[in-house]
Specification:
Layout: E1 3-7, E2 10-13, E3 18-25, E4 34-39, E5 46-51, E6 58-60, E7 68-73, E8 78-83, E9 92-100, E10 103-106, E11 110-115
Parallel strand pairs: 2-11
Antiparallel strand pairs: 1-3, 3-8, 4-5, 4-9, 5-6, 7-8, 9-10, 9-11
Length: 116
């Protein structure tokens, strides 16, 4: 079965950095894009980043462009989201996501809290 397990969240001051990890299993990691989403309290889940299977193309939401960087580690079957210059508005639960065999798969999420 497909599993996505996020880690790396925490509490950080504004201007600080974190690196989130998404460990994948149960599918051919090389062949599928992986996305990062986030959901702040009282808000809808929004897309943050998406990295293609080959890492050739990467998408970033305008709100994080220039601050966040996604990357893949194929041997470890892990996708990372490096987050720099964090802002209080980045506070949210962050989820990784993939679509496999026509079904959406989500991790359990990791909390990121940025204090001002």
């Amino acid at each position: 079965e497909v599993q996505l397990v996020e880690s790396g969240g925490g509490l950080v001051q504004a201007g600080g950095s974190l690196r989130l990890s998404c460990a994948a299993s149960g599918f051919t990691f090389d062949d599928y894009a992986i996305g990062w989403f986030r959901q702040a309290p009282g808000k809808e889940r929004e897309g943050v980043s998406c990295i293609s299977s080959s890492e050739i193309s990467t998408y970033y939401a305008d709100s994080v462009k220039g601050r966040f960087t996604a990357s893949r580690d194929w041997p470890r079957m892990t996708v990372y989201l490096r987050m720099n210059d964090l802002k209080p508005e980045d506070t949210a639960v962050y989820y990784c996501y993939t679509r496999y065999w026509g079904r959406d798969w989500w991790g359990q999420g990791t909390q990121v809290t940025v204090s001002s």
